[in-house]
Backbone:
């Protein structure tokens, strides 16, 4: 039988040689060595004059209609799904949402976790690790945040000036009286990624000790806390002192 010479040049040479016996034996050996997908491109032709015009049709029509093995192979091909990646508009600071948190009477750690989620963008369905898709967060009344247990007197903050003997250790009460914004900033920064991405997300946090802030033009929306949230409930049986 004549086979498509365009798909297999060696078979075309055997056809021109005019030796049917040798051609059949050699063609069978070549067919056994060809990959399965290559066999689908082979199609019968009627004469040598119809070799070229029928070759393209044999590769298309025969492969789709006359080869059940090819249809089975196509059904097993893996489905290609594109992974969504944030575009420039998704990370543009002009398109980010602004949120505001009133820290008066709120527990430091529980509040900081929710703020970190907003800064990283984990509250969005478009969250993508490694991309800055988070929002801006404004915190007011940072001087009225509370902590549970004995943290008010025993929780310490460490800093070093870089000079010999320049270690300074402060308690929560001392730092709250001196720089109350630093307490919220340190709590949130420790929950953000370490590196350029985390530093950029930390710049979107605006903390103020009082109730006034200069971001009214951005119209920040208050974060809605669920009823009974541990961030808004004061620990039972433990007195908290609030520095005013």
Residues:
């Amino acid at each position: 039988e004549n086979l498509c010479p365009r798909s297999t040049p060696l078979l075309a040479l055997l056809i021109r040689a005019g030796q049917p016996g040798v051609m059949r034996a050699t063609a069978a050996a070549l067919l056994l060595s060809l990959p399965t997908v290559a066999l689908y491109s082979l199609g019968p032709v009627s004469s040598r004059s119809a070799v070229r015009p029928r070759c393209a049709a044999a590769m298309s029509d025969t492969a789709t209609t006359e080869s059940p093995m090819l249809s089975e192979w196509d059904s097993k091909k893996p489905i290609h799904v594109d992974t969504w990646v944030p575009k420039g508009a998704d990370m543009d600071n002009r398109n980010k949402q602004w949120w505001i948190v009133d820290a008066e009477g709120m527990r430091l750690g529980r509040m900081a976790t929710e703020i970190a989620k907003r800064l990283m963008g984990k509250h969005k369905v478009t969250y993508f690790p490694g991309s800055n898709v988070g929002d801006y967060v404004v915190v007011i009344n940072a001087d009225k945040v509370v902590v549970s247990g004995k943290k008010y007197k025993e929780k310490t903050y460490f800093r070093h000036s870089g000079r010999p003997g320049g270690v300074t250790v402060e308690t929560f009460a001392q730092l709250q009286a001196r720089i109350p914004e630093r307490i919220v900033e340190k709590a949130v920064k420790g929950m953000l990624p370490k590196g350029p991405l985390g530093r950029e997300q930390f710049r979107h946090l605006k903390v103020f000790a009082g109730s006034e802030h200069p971001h009214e033009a951005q119209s920040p929306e208050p974060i809605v806390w669920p009823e009974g949230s541990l961030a808004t409930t004061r620990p039972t049986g433990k007195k908290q002192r609030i520095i005013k």
